[in-house]
Amino acid sequence: MAPPTVSFPPPGSVMDGQSRLSAVNRLRWDLTAEQIDRATTELIEKTKQVYDAVGALQQAEVSYENTLKALANVEVEYTVQRNMLDFPQHVSPNKDIRTASTEADKKLSEFDVEMSMRQDVYQRIIWLQEKVESTSLRQEANRYLERLIKLGRRSGLHLSEEIQEKIKAIKKKLSVLCIDFNKNLNEDTTFLPFTKEELGGLPEDFLNSLEKTEDGKLKVTLKYPHYFPLMKKCHVPETRRKMEEMFNSRCKEENCLILKELVDLRAQKSALLGFKTHADFVLEMNMAKNYQTVMNFLEELSVKLKPLGEKERATILDLKQKECEKRSLQFDGRINAWDMRYYMNQVEETQYSVDQNLLKEYFPMQVVTDGLLEIYQELLGLTFHLEENAPVWHEDVRLYTVKDVTSGETIGKFYLDLYPREGKYGHAACFGLQPGCLLADSSRQISVAAMVANFTKPTPDAPSLLQHDEVETYFHEFGHVMHQLCSQADFAMFSGTHVERDFVEAPSQMLENWVWEKEPLMRMSKHYKTGKPIPDELLQKLIKSRQANTGLFNLRQIVLAKVDQALHTQTKADPVKEYSQLCNEILGVPATPGTNMPATFGHLAGGYDAQYYGYLWSEVYSMDMFYTRFKQEGIMNCKVGMDYRNYILRPGGSADAWDMLRKFLGRDPKQDAFLASKGLNMEPNTLPSAC
Questions:
Q1: Residue 468: count of CB within 10 angstroms of its CB
Q2: Contact 308, 587 (CB under 8 A)
Q3: Which three-class secondary structure state does DSSP give residue 607?
Q4: CA 165: distance to chain centroid?
Q5: Are 157 and 125 a contacting pair, CB within 8 Å?
Q6: Is 629 in contact with 593 (CB distance < 8 Å)?
Q7: Three-class SS of residue 410?
Q8: What's the burial of 51, exposed, middle or buried (CB within 10 Å: 0-12/13-18/19+)?
Q9: Which candidate in 477, 500, 505, 578 is catalytic?
Q10: Rounded to whole angstroms, how far apart are CA atoms 464 and 206?
Q11: Distance CA 446, CA 352 (A)
């Protein structure tokens, strides 16, 4: 019997490279709570119909068009609609809408699990693979086909029905727990009342921005724009102690229980799928591939950094002793958790003479924003245009259209939502909202993303002045926005930042280097009163201070990465105990008794489970890219910028990170630049290969 014929895509589809542009932003932010609820049900029904149709195909009927393309098309539609429904939980000023959006996210996450467990659809994809010659598909279409099969196996669709049902129940429970964990942190409204004296050392603009209690005390919340400045600048140890204790006790009762259940369920699911640990299950899809590689990387880096950490702790203890004598305070002879940021800041101010309060006067929000946008436009060959009166979710939000300089074509749009408000997502992050990919009619949909942050909001009395580390955060997150917008993948699954999780930070980390270089710094700074540039002397001190506290900062990153690995490899690991033990062993600074830092660690429930190591791992590549190309050929070199856009950003996840790096670097990646950036001048390749 002759094999059944396979219908192949016509010209102009995923098979050939050219596509028309659909420069439409399909997102809308005016949905009421009721509309969100109704639209969620409709989206689930419409999407399920497509899966049902694919799942009902006879083996002889299966074709590229009715299987792979049908699934790709519905994925685009579903992604756009889903983001409209679940993004408001992070940003809407209306609590009812946030609640409706959270509920929508739960329903849609449950539906995601259902669709990921469709054995009938999986079978049709297997039939398609058996039918079609991989050479007859374009490379990315073939990658999509292979990825769907891989994801099917990772959901257990090749296993018995009984095991599949167990996996499905676990996945549903996990998605609800993750949403609740982060919702608890976002909705936290705890504040501490302090007198002006208790906030000694904090600048006037900070004090003036605080709300007051009825008895005239100043209200300090646990949100970033309050917490970090206080921990760095307040010279009253008792105030810092109270803040640190409360900050690392946020939601500790409820999130402690959620975390325990998350870790148990992840281990159960991984065991059902034949993996030794949840870490091994997760890492299979990453550059690192397995738990042992990650632990070797962290362990050897820790060994190299420890002598640096010891030196830095000795410096801090010395500073603390002098401070205690100066302020007639009792010296307890140790570094407490609430001392860390305060004295790390003092190291910058004493050893490097960087006065952070003076420095931030040169970083008013508008100047930083204008300079940052200018640098990105020049570097990547883009133009940004502010849209007047754009429909947004809050009056603070701005929307920009992004065009390619050479072709004049719109490649995407981005929202900036930079200031804190009640109920808003509490960190800084980039949210991909509309994937840049091909639509059903083969036209190209533009990408839309949002950068959400919590910088100090300007008031009539005080401008918004950024700390230098906030400028760095701004640059980093905006790098993710550019990754979202510059990628030109065909499939939604590979759009934007959908790369290996231990590579995803590298493109943004690389761009952080610009806030430590003279030319870019000059372009995004001037004094908020006089308009004068940063004095050269202050600038040079700032640039030198990059090495300040590098040992302790990176040892803390190792602590967090190891806590994450411990929770996802050991059975019944106690998060508080693990964190406390690692703080003592690696950082040499004890965790405050009674606190529960892991219960506030949003990454554990935010897609970084067993993957927090990725921040350090991807720095190997970010530093290699920066020093090999930009530092050698010019940090504002447009040709290097375009190579970066074409080789690193443009593919999205349609190519392996390893291959993208090789093309950009012209060789295999190396660790030398990474080690040098940490103040470690080692023999080449003495760390286990993140490369």
A1: 20
A2: no
A3: coil
A4: 32
A5: no
A6: no
A7: strand
A8: middle
A9: 477
A10: 10
A11: 45
Cα 223 off chain centre by? 18
What pLDDT was estimated at residue 689? 47
Both tokens of 170, joined, read 């676990």
CA-wise closest residue to 443 among 94, 26, 40: 26
Q: Closest Cα to residue 601, out of 427, 423, 452, 475?
A: 427
Q: 529: which 2 tokens?
A: 């009163």
User: What DSSP character marks residue 337?
Assistant: G
What lies within 8 Å, CB to CB, of 236 at 6+ separation is: 197, 198, 199, 200, 201
- Spatial separation of the C-alpha atoms in residues 329 and 324, rounded to whole Å: 5
- Residue 400 φ then ψ, to 5°: -120, 145
Reported as type and span, the H/E element at residue 672 is: helix 672-677
Q: How many angstroms separate the first and last alpha carbons of the chain?
A: 50
Residue 477 is a catalytic residue: yes
Q: Is the pLDDT of residue 4 over 50?
A: no
Q: Are 107 and 173 in contact (CB under 8 A)?
A: no
For strands 444-445 and 410-417, give the pairing.
unpaired
pLDDT in tens, 568-627: 999 889 999 999 999 999 999 999 999 999 999 999 999 999 999 999 999 999 999 999
Cα angle: 393, vertex 494, 369; to 5 degrees: 40
DSSP string, 191-204: EEEE-TGGGTT--H
The answer to whether 175 touches 112, Cβ cutoff 8 Å, is yes
Residue 382: φ, ψ to 5°: -130, 165
Strand pairing report for 382-386 and 398-404: antiparallel
Tell me what the mean pLDDT of segment 673-684 comes to. 80
